[in-house]
Amino acid sequence: MKRRDFFKTVGFATMAAGVTSGLSGIACSKQKFTKGSGMKLSYEIKQLNLRHTWTIARNSSNFKQNVFVKLEKDGIVGIGEAAPNVRYNETPESTIEVIKKAIPLFADADPFEFVQLGYDIQNLCEGQTAGKCALDIALMDWVGKALNAPLYRLWGLDPEKSPLTSFSIG
User: Fold this and answer.
1) What region does 148 belong to: left with phi over 0, alpha with psi -120 to 50, or beta?
2) Residue 25 has pLDDT above 80, yes or no
3) Helices (DSSP H) in 40-128: which residue ranges?
4) How many domains does the structure of the chain reveal?
5) Which of 6-10, 118-122, 145-149, 162-166 reaches the highest mean pLDDT?
6) Residue 43 CB burial class (10 angstroms; 0-12, 13-18, ≥19)
7) What is the pLDDT of residues 34-61, one digit of tens each?
8) Which CATH number is 74's domain given?
9) CA dist 44 to 24, 52, 84, 123, 156, Å?
10) Domain containing 67: what range?
11) Does a structural domain hold residue 99?
């Protein structure tokens, strides 16, 4: 097994275990959701105009083009966002191609089978992680909204114990 495949498997298994442990104490009923009607997937490129010019060693820019994904089913909308990065050979157009490839995955999908859907999303193509990330975020956003619970709770996590993160300031 490749190292990357190992981490994917461990990550999805850990997430699934966290979800089942986090469900205790959350009142939910899957029966109110329709099975088999699939999810509607839509996408849109939005230009985000930056307040200040973003400058790093490689370049400067005054805007970013991100791709927003919506998954709709049973009146619930999950939203995901992709920030394509040219460093990884990603563009808004290549991101949309990945999203288009995913449309059949969601056509008859049960969103509560998100672990398998996650595997299926990862196997769409090599690379293009921004698009796959947007799909995964939209799916998990839908699940959290459908169960009326934040994801950290579904996964059995404590926000106070979450790791510190960072971001670039250009």
Assistant:
1) left
2) no
3) 92-107, 114-122
4) 1
5) 145-149
6) buried
7) 555 689 999 999 999 999 999 988 889 9
8) 3.30.390.10
9) 36, 24, 13, 23, 32
10) 3-23+37-155
11) yes
